[in-house]
Amino acid sequence: MKNTFKKIEHLKNFVRKPYTTNIRIGNRGDKFANVYTDSFGHHNDIHNHRVRKLRQIDDDPQRFFQQDNITSYFINVKYKIPKVRLYDSDEDFNYSKFLDEFNSHAVHYESHVNKHILGSNRVRYIIGDVGTGKSTFLRRLMADLEALNEKSDSLKNIVVHINCENILNTRSQPTPITGAFYVEIFKIMLDCAIGILPEIQTTDIYQNFNPAFPDNNIKELCAKVLERNYRFTLILDNLDFYHYYYSRYAFFVEYRDRQEESIKDNLNDLIIHFTRGTFLGLSGLNVLIPLREVVWEDLSSVTPGIETHTEDNRAIRLIPRSDDEVIGSRITLFKDACEILKKDRSLDCTELDWSISAIETYFRRGQKKKNSPIDFIFKLGQQGHRSLVEFFNSLALSPYEFELIERLIVDQSEILINLYINKMQCKYSQKANHFPNLFLVDCRAFYDPEFSLAHEPHIHTYWLKYIILSLVYKNPKIRYGEIHEMLSDGEHGYEAHLIRHATGSLCTTNEFRCLEAEEISYNININDIKLRSTKRGDCLMEMSHGVPFCFSYRYLSSITNDFWLSFPEPVAKLIYQPDIHFQHLYLPGESYAEEAATFVLKRAQSVAICLRIIHEAWKYELGTYRRQILENISDNINPPDLESSLNSLTASVQSILSAFKGYRKKPENAQQEQRFYELLQDQNGEVQSAAEKIKIYFESPTPFNE
Fold first, then answer.
1. Which of 249, 311, 519, 607 is geometrically suited to a Cys-Cys bond with 255, CB 3.0 to 4.6 A?
2. What counts of helices (H) and strands (E) characterise the chain?
3. The dihedral sign for the CA sequence 302, 306, 308, 313
4. Beta strands 286-291 and 230-237: pairing type?
């Protein structure tokens, strides 16, 4: 059968095009935009410089402050250190106590002692959910360890941050941790040691490196630096991928052991390698392993004997700071930088205070107001506070772009939600915080022969992900087995592999993250796993203009242009509009109003068609063998009817257009508005006609994206 469900390939360029915000006003704008950007930046590099003062520079045409300077100043002065406590305990550690304990000396080296037995390693696990600030916490810890070196007359630290994700290529299946991994660790340790102790280059460890025995190389290097009154502190970062790669298939009995084996063969073996004396356990190392909480729980269930309460091995939980403290610390950093600039007589800073006040007022107000744009972005974000801070960093606002600040921050700040959704759409990967599309279930989209049972053909449905999320949202702690029983029901329901695949997709931590398992142990039957919705899942289900947010104009206006969403060919060309972009946000005055209205009306047309297709698909499912199942669970899923959805769309569009007085002066807008209202009523019957043509494809188990 001809493949009539297809991606529009040229839209790949469109999806990456619309978010073009780095438009500044001259060189002065460049400098000020960088002050703002660096203040809200989340830089990937670890800065361990002990900077406590902002220093203005004169010879850089792009920056008032060096990026390293403003980042390090934030870490050391403005950063609010979170509380820490022992995992599975209510006992708080204050940060100073944690630092002292972490820095305490574990080695007992003497000249006559075997150089391979330097003392037991200290292993710490920093546990925190996504966005709780583990990376920033590590930066502060590194800076403080460096400061302790300056004060210490005894053993000092060589702090080595190792991004394991860079060593272990994870673009496809994660690379197993083997001897090659420890060879790379040794090379990184050696580079760091030479930076502090250049004479290491003349020792035999540098001359006689043997990659066949990486453990021996590491032990000898530890002994060499210990002779010079140093010991290594290793931070093994970004090991979580050994859990995430398999999470999409967690509800397939046939594949569940893949994740368990991945954790056992990699994370558990790595921990054993650094804790047992037969490997590197007596090398006198300080080892810190940050992990997300769900990974730690799974690791603990796979390896119940893991020691975390001994003097040398402890798991520490980060208690995240409040929204106000996280955003507030960035605002005070921005204000500190601007106060220094205001003292520079060569700059015209008379109007700078207005911009600072507008930005601060918006952030403060947005934190306290429920369902404000800041609140929405925080809940929709894949990585909590990090997603929120990174987004505002990406706006690259200059305090001198008065009209743009007034437009985005003061008058129409809800536009930021559209920008945020579109920003996440720009890059389809873990680091881009992929935005969830609830109206697509296609097991063939990312076919993987290793997991062939999860990618079998199926009857197409736009609705299954929405249904599953609704069931969990309405029934917290519902078990997976209950969901499966409700939706499969033998020959009258959804295909078993489709339900498992859709649930796993919703639980995929590095993509959807709308659902998560409340508790999971590899001794628990899959059907007994309890599910709960995340903040993102809750946000998608909350009411907006009388319908769940996932049926709102704001949500659908973004996903209709997601080139990964399959639409039937008869309607795809009606929905996709690749010429839409956000550059109108930077136009002045009347031109902005006209172009913004064009943007809204074109998007609204796509949403009107999309809503009708989604509801046609719902009517079709109610008319098939799935009807009995859907009627039985109707109270739990409560999908809005077509009239409510279209009324919500109309109200949203009219509310937005009311801000653009005189937009009809542009003849195209009057035509676009007329076209929108015709589509709402389907006056020409074109949507209904297209829907009739595609019913045959709803009935066929078509591999859409082969």
1. 249
2. 31, 14
3. negative
4. parallel
